[in-house]
Amino acid sequence: ISSPFFPPDSSWDAAYERELQTFQDIGDTGEIWFGEESMVRIIRWLEKHKVPLDSSVLDIGTGNGVLLVELAKSGYMNLTGIDYSPSAIQLSEKVREKEGMSNIKLKVEDFLAPSAELSGFDICIDKGTFDAISLDPSDAVGKRKLYVGSLGRVLKPDGFFLITSCNWTKEELLNEFREGFEILEELPTPKFCFGGRIGNSVTALVFQRK
């Protein structure tokens, strides 16, 4: 499986191959992007807004699939994870099996060119995938536009998009997703202090598709 933003033998795939081997050796699921609090933040928002447990949820760039496992433990039943990396999907399948979460669907998919059946989701979640696309040295601007277009196709009208980013400020993300999406709220994230100025190292926003 190839991807327009990373070659098949990219460092991402190699990293997930290492994590897959580590999981097979010692049962360690590997790194949780943005830490455990990022998953808690997402689940709390869904619960606070009484998002029905049978809502269809897509985890874009699922990696080790741990977020989906936590959503399943919280009662969510209609969960799908995609990743362009076959090694990531293999790892998330192992994690799913270990946790006994047979209702989680996992697929190798390139979000910039999604298959036709990837559509109609109530919720889309991104923890770092938009960041990774943004770092691509070849045509990052074009790939960000492809991402926004794909999001508009897979997310239902009035559906929610929860994005966690360490590369983009709130204002920058508002600009990136201005076509077809409106901001609902900014979620609280850890603060840092540098040179007497307080800022956020992580931005977490909730958008709604228009």
UniProtKB/TrEMBL annotation:
Any idea where the Methyltransferase domain is?
56-185
Q: Which CDD domains match?
A: AdoMet_MTases (cd02440)
GO biological process terms on file: methylation
| One term of GO molecular function | protein-lysine N-methyltransferase activity
* Species per Swiss-Prot/TrEMBL record: Tychaedon coryphoeus
Lineage at the top is:
Eukaryota, Metazoa, Chordata, Craniata, Vertebrata
TM region(s), chain numbering: none
Catalysed reactions, as listed in the record:
L-lysyl-[protein] + 3 S-adenosyl-L-methionine = N(6),N(6),N(6)-trimethyl-L-lysyl-[protein] + 3 S-adenosyl-L-homocysteine + 3 H(+)
Q: What is this protein called?
A: EFMT2 methyltransferase
Q: Taxonomically, which superkingdom?
A: Eukaryota
- Decide whether keyword Cytoplasm is in the record: yes
GO CC: one term?
A: cytoplasm
Q: What does the UniProt keyword field contain?
A: Cytoplasm, Methyltransferase, Nucleus, S-adenosyl-L-methionine, Transferase
Sorted alphabetically, which Pfam families does this protein's record hold?
Methyltransf_31
HAMAP family of this UniProt entry?
Methyltr_EFM4
